[in-house]
Amino acid sequence: MESESKRKKESPNTAELAVTASFPDEVLEIVLSLLTSHRDRSSVSLVCKDWYRAERWSRTQVFIGNCYSVSPEILTRRFPNIRSVTLKGKPRFSDFNLVPPNWGADIHAWLVAFAVKYPFLEELRLKRMAVSDESLEFLASNFPNFKLLSLLSCDGFSTDGLAAIATHCKNLTELDIQENGIEDSSGSWLSCFPESFTSLEVLNFANLTSEVNTDALERLVSRCKSLKVLKVNKSISLEQLQRLLVRAPQLEELGTGSFLQDLTARPYADLESAFNNCKNIHTLSGLWEAVPLYLPALYNSCANLTFLNLSYTALQSGEFAKLVVHCPRLRRLWVLDTVEDKGLEAVGSNCPLLEELRVFPADPFDEEIIHGVTEEGFVAVSFGCRRLHYVLYFCRQMTNAAVATIVQNCPNFTHFRLCIMTPGLPDYLTNEPMDEAFGAVVKTCSKLQRLSVSGLLTDLTFEYIGKYAKNLETLSVAFAGRSDRGMQCVLEGCPKLRKLEIRDCPFGNEALLSGLEKYESMRSLWMSACNVTMNACRRLAKQMPRLNVEVMKEDGSDDSQADKVYIYRTVAGPRRDAPPSVLTL
Amino acid sequence: MEKSGLNLKATELRLGLPGSESPERGSDKNGNAAVILSLKSFVGSGAKRVFCDATDADAKWVFSVSEAAAGRLFSPRGGGSSNNNNNNHGKVHVGSDSGLGGPVLEDGNGACVAAQSPKPVMMVQDKKSHEIAPSKAQVVGWPPIRSYRKNTMSSQSSKNDDDSEAKLGLGCLYVKVSMDGAPYLRKVDLKTYSSYIDLSSALEKMFSCFTIGQCSSHNVPSRDGLSESRLMDLLHGSEYVLTYEDKDGDWMLVGDVPWEMFTDSCRRLRIMKSSDAIGLAPRAMEKCKNRN
């Protein structure tokens, strides 16, 4: 498809042009409907008016990375046939409480527009949006074909909203509720699925806490023969899990409940055989409060695992090592740093196919605990897992040399997110800044798309980034840099930069204004606790009308300073739903 | 670096402006105030930040801490009761040039105090000069962990106040370890060790001038518990002994009960001078006898 459209684009010959001009729209639409990538579709729509028209009629999925970059009216006007919408709302730093409550990103206005223009809407995926129970009820009642709801890191709703979805969405295939600020008052929502309801394929309520009716859950699982993904919450015991597994041997992704229960010999054997019977499980998560005693029940299932998520399970290095020996096909691994370097060494030794590793801190705020992982664990993984390309690593110490070794072993990093948890911490062996570490990363990993830096960093890090990170799209910076020059290097040097988020850095007006023309090619810029003034923001807003420049003011702060600045491109103009603490300039 | 184990020099607070060599401390009242400041301690959620390009020619950024947050700043031991006032306008420099390598604290008098952190940064717990409690003051939104995850982790661990020393979280069993004369506490997770030998060698590494001696090698006591003479042998063998506070609040010598029983009842560990520990022996004997 791509080559065909390319050939057509490149043909300057008039005879050929005449052919393409008479090409029936319907055929073009069918051809284009096979294009799924958003970027391809954007390119296609820019070719000529005919193609723009064909593309807009044939598009069924839309992805909006910033809900304020476009309005519901503009969206529905351009694309009449959308069945699947993905919307992202608040800036990412809202996950870390840096964005005031009531900031915005409310889904409701969108739903109202969709009810009129896309009554046949099937899928809605929301990330960092404000969602109310009222909105969920509205959704459940106005879209008869609705199939898929995925809410990640959203807030504002309660289990009542879920009850509405369960009650009214007769064709629901997927309900995926993850890491939301949800008011979890009761588990009765699960019992709202009618007895006649059988279409569910994905059910993920792992992050809810209330107890659900286990009989209702069992019956639901029994009658939904296409159920492929089941992730239950902590309230589900081992024994209950076993009963569920027996009813769903076709499961492909499983999130267990609490892995802590006094099991006698027979129930343990039942559990083990239930797991053995589920031959298609490739993703495993949950394992809340897992006790090493029962982990062997999983060993056989582990042989086929490609994704193991232990990020809520505090396993020590020994018991984790014993488990990981059974997971040779692992491609993605999420763990807590309780496994320590020894645990990661076991990963390096046993998981040669590993592509993604995320190590979360079990106790990020307690400095007395000196365990966790160090640079040694990371290095050990890099020696054993040469295909590693995605890493998120929280640690308390790091060295430049270690990072250099890591990227030498694994030059294919696309996502490198290193969080040395004490801000401004230097290389603990040499006491030097960590500039050379990130220099090594950007010099060696030419495919790097996403980078998060940490530790003591001077402007040199940013010089390196600007000079070498030519494919970088997302950069997160905190407590780093020396002067405006740092930020300028990045703005001038990274052609593909889309998202830049900065906090607590000495970058000021000169840096901010140096990116004047750049920001329209980016999705957004976040700067908080930096050195930026209101006047500079006003100047920016004045010169760039297609950018929204929003400043979040904190109580009692200096009026001339811009504490938190969020700048993004938009075709929708300044937004009208900002709370009083957010000034749009 | 002296291998006395505590490495006081490395953890000393020094005076000096960021980027300059810190001069040797001359007039400090307390010559061996080994205090390490962690960046985590200086900013609370309401911290006011002011940028004074004018004051710092190198355009190093400075942010000042509001009075409330400054109250949580860790004060050097020698400061005495005037510390609160001094710290009201404490400024913190972050990201210094070579040499200092760590966060730099500017106290009310305008002098800069750098915290050297060549090793992982540790918090100093000094219960004596207690006006300012450092441990829980944090930078907002750092480390960058989603609220959901933070809430889940904290709800899985029991509340940790000053008196309850053992913290159970996510299947771990953290207990505080203090050593007489050492300026800081450590925490260990008892679940990571399977025997007294394990624990002993780990603690030895942490507090390298301490030896548990032969306490760990025979971990199963006889019916009568440890004989008095054997206990004396242990105590005479080393300068320090390892003791623990059990569920009842009694201080016991480590090693006199089976390992599992120990991890069950241990709430806090203390490396005590053996001269102070002599009095424990009879009590340990009593308890063993009572248990049997």
Automatic annotation (TrEMBL), chain B:
The record's listing under Pfam families reads: AUX_IAA
Q: InterPro entries from the entry?
A: AUX/IAA_dom, AUX_IAA, PB1-like
- Record organism: Citrus unshiu
What is its subcellular localisation?
Answer: Nucleus
Oligomer status and interactors:
Homodimers and heterodimers.
Instruction: Enumerate the transmembrane spans.
Output: none
- GO CC annotation terms, alphabetical: nucleus
Where are the stretches annotated Disordered? 1-30, 75-96
Family statement: Belongs to the Aux/IAA family.
* UniProt function note: Aux/IAA proteins are short-lived transcriptional factors that function as repressors of early auxin response genes at low auxin concentrations.
Q: Which domain of life is it from?
A: Eukaryota
Its protein name is Auxin-responsive protein
Where in this chain does the record put each PB1 domain? Answer: 172-274
GO BP term (any one):
auxin-activated signaling pathway
Q: Which UniProt keywords apply?
A: Auxin signaling pathway, Nucleus, Repressor, Transcription, Transcription regulation
